[in-house]
Specification:
Four Helix Bundle (Hemerythrin (Met), subunit A); 2 strands
């Protein structure tokens, strides 16, 4: 009746999309703490949708659909959403526009590259080529904590430098080790810790 493939991994991907959109809406309404929390959990969704997909038996068509859906969601979650959060925080100069546009374009390029080349892996590869876009969900929440240092100039320049650096790492042809095993245990605990921070310390 409906087009698409409906399974647990794809629903988790869509949950990540919902959370990233909520982060945009919340940042627009000046709820920065809640926006960052939603952004972090979108990162967890992206991490575990792949994990769940690898555990589920699927035919080639379902696998391909999941890969395409995941990349489309990632463009919003880790390309557009971080840019919108920064924009709503107040990074609205002409230079900021250029930096944020560059960031989103690099994220899109990284995801397109993965769709073409990453899916051809034989499963033995121990690294990614270029920084995966999901890493932004682990980096930016820590960068925004520096706003508590009280030095606005340092904070603003650090955020800008982080966007530029991550953008370049997205498209730089460098090997980035794959994370797995213990990381799947540590990441949720780190996210819970940061959730507590942004809810009760901010």
């Amino acid at each position: 009746m409906f087009i698409g493939v409906y399974n647990i991994p794809n629903l988790v991907s869509l949950l990540g999309l919902v959370l990233s959109l909520m982060s945009c809406f919340l940042s627009y309404n000046n709820y920065l703490n809640l926006a960052i929390i939603c952004f972090m959990y979108a990162g967890l969704c992206d991490m575990f949708d792949g994990f769940l997909a690898r555990k589920k038996e699927m035919n080639d068509e379902d696998k391909l659909f999941g890969i395409q859906l995941d990349s489309i969601v990632d463009v919003v979650s880790f390309g557009v959403a971080p840019a919108m959060i920064a924009f709503h925080i107040g990074f609205t100069t002409f230079i900021d526009y250029l930096i944020l546009i560059f960031y989103v374009c690099c994220a899109a390029m990284r995801l397109a590259y993965f769709n073409v080349h990453g899916t051809k892996s034989d499963g033995k590869r121990k690294y990614y080529t270029g920084l995966p876009v999901t890493f932004s969900a682990m980096i930016f929440p820590f960068v925004y904590i520096t706003s508590f240092w009280g030095n606005d100039l340092l904070y603003n320049n650090l955020v800008r430098l982080t966007f530029i650096t991550i953008s370049i790492l997205f498209i730089l042809r460098i090997p980035v080790p794959k994370l797995g095993g213990l990381f799947y245990v540590l990441a949720p605990f780190v996210t819970l810790f940061l959730t507590f921070f942004w809810l009760y310390i901010k």
